[in-house]
Amino acid sequence: MALNNGSSQTLGLLDVVSSWEAFETINQCVVIMRLEPTRSNGRWAVRMTGMAWDNGSDVPGAACLASESLICSPMEWKSLDTVAFRLLYALDGQLASAEFDKVNHK
Fold it and tell me: How many domains does the chain have?
């Protein structure tokens, strides 16, 4: 992946946002990510939840197409953008699996 911030060491906000937007366009969905502090084994951690919603219907009646939640301690991730990409990959896998299931049931 070509990085917008000019560094191969870390991803930047522009990389996350442009990939997020492309993900929504390709999968015809709206992705919402949520961060919340939590404790894991008595230590502070971050829970990041991602949900992909059908963008073909109005927001109150939209169907949840995929969801994933990750709990990360500071030792498990180098930056928040890395966690965001992990969530997008997990959501993509769920959406692909659902698409394969639809094709196999026809």
Answer: 1
Residues forming a β-bridge with 67: 51
- The answer to whether residue 17 sits within a structural domain is yes
pLDDT tens-digit readout, 29-80: 999 999 999 987 888 888 999 999 998 666 677 889 999 998 887 777 667 7
**Does 53 reside within a domain?**
yes
Q: What is the pTM of this model?
A: 0.77
Token look-up 């030792």 returns 75
Residue 4, token pair as written in the block = 């917008």
61 by Cβ neighbours in 10 Å (0-12 / 13-18 / 19+) ranks as exposed
